[in-house]
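User: I'm designing a mutation panel for Bifunctional ligase/repressor BirA and want to avoid disrupting the core. Could you give me a predicted structure to guide residue selection? Please restate the sequence first so the numbering is unambiguous.

Assistant: Good idea. Sequence first, for numbering, then the predicted structure tokens:
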Amino acid sequence: MVFKAAMNTKEQLLRYLKKEQGRFVSGEKVSSRLAISRSAIWKQISRLKEEGYDIESSPRRGYALRSIPDCLLAGEIREGLNTRLIGRGPIFHFQQTDNTNNQGKALAYEGAPEGALVIAEEQSQGRGRRGRTWFSPHSQGIYATVILRPLIPLSETPKLTLLAAVAATEALETQTGLPIRIKWPNDILANGRKLAGILTEIGTEMDAVDFAVIGMGLNVNVPQASFPSDLRYPATSILIETGRPFPRIRLLQSWLEALEKYYSLLLQGDFDNILSRWKFLTDIVGSRIAVEMPGRRYIGEVQDVDGNGVLILKESDGALQRIFSGDVTLLTV
């Protein structure tokens, strides 16, 4: 499969219409500026209308952009995005899909380049850790997956989840002003309630990392009453926490920018700074916790988090346990 990275004709046309700020521009002028035929312009205008852009067409005056849909479309994501890699390659947009990580893995196996982005307006089978469901209503959240191809040992891939969580936390704090924290290993909390989650999956080839897909589900404009009854207390959204709706595009851009920053640090061998930031945002070292795992429950005090994000837990008898995954509950006594 051939993956196109450069801005395509449709995106160039959209950017041109935006610059005109609602004024009509003639088909002849667009044709000359973009070096495409009048029939090609009409074809791309039709595609933009199908995506939800309100474009007024007049035989004598040309075309004018009237409104922009609240959709996470490629042209909207790239405009104002301050990255060099992530989001600069192909962007795959779905109105609905099973989940973006599944799509990302399929595209990665087909050769999608590093930095490619998968976006969905709705997921029918949104997933969290350990097969849990992520509630993914249409146009009310961000369901995104980034494809990366890091040249790191397989043993170091847990670092990707940590850096993605740090990136999400910093992006959300910057954009919303909310107090955001990380719950080990990959939940993002606002005022103690689950706002977002990170899911990293790895593709290997000959015991080496072929690709990683990092998915984020973020509850943006989900009203309290929309959550399923069993999720209404643990789950929250930016709308619930702030009392007002938020533009999804800028939230997504902010996460992609922070993700690229921390991914670059990882590749430069500077993971210590990422881990230090992660520890600060989790504030879990020294806490007494219970960890639920399949067939086992551990209780103890967190001694440290190692360079791969593994919890070092000290039980009451002094035994040290290395906890790679599990459900954590903070114990107050």
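For picking mutation sites, this is relevant: The longest strand covers residues 193-205. DSSP finds nine helices and 14 strands in the chain.
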